[in-house]
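re: that chain from earlier
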Amino acid sequence: MQTHKSRQSARADAEPETAGTSRMMLTVAAAWVLSLGFDVFLHAGLLARLYVGPSPFLLGPEEAFRRIPLGYLAFLVLTMALYWFLRRLGVRGTIAGLRYGTAAGAVVWGAFVVGLYSISTVSLPLLAGWWVGQTIELGLAGAVLGAAANRVRLRRIWVVVMVAVLACVAGTVILQSLGLAPPMKIVR
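^ sequence. v structure.
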């Protein structure tokens, strides 16, 4: 028969595990959100001109827009894999996370773009933009994951992430307003 004291002990043992799972989920979410913010800046700002015009490789704008959630799901999978990778290696700290995330991004996206180039009509500038941009995305995710592994408070991490995402959105709007990137069109 379980006593009141042993039930309290069992609950106390479960609390750190629950807190750890919650922290892990919030950490991965923060890293993912930062990746998505930079992704908007990358594709709607820096690389936007490469998507204008007909392409035998790219989907039309409406269909591409509908499929964006699938791409974001892929980023979540990569962010979770990066979390696991950094944990296994014992990476701690923002800079260390940035370095390992950038290295992982360069390898993963480098292999992807070489493979894509070997079987498609995609242009070299677009491939180069994807490789560099997606490498930066995983680097940023790694920085968040490394900071969290170094016990930086999640509240602080989320504040920095949200400021960075807002800066990415503002940067995108500025690029489009200055004519340096084509403005987004709403299709009805």
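Residues 114 and 127 are 8 Å apart (CA to CA).
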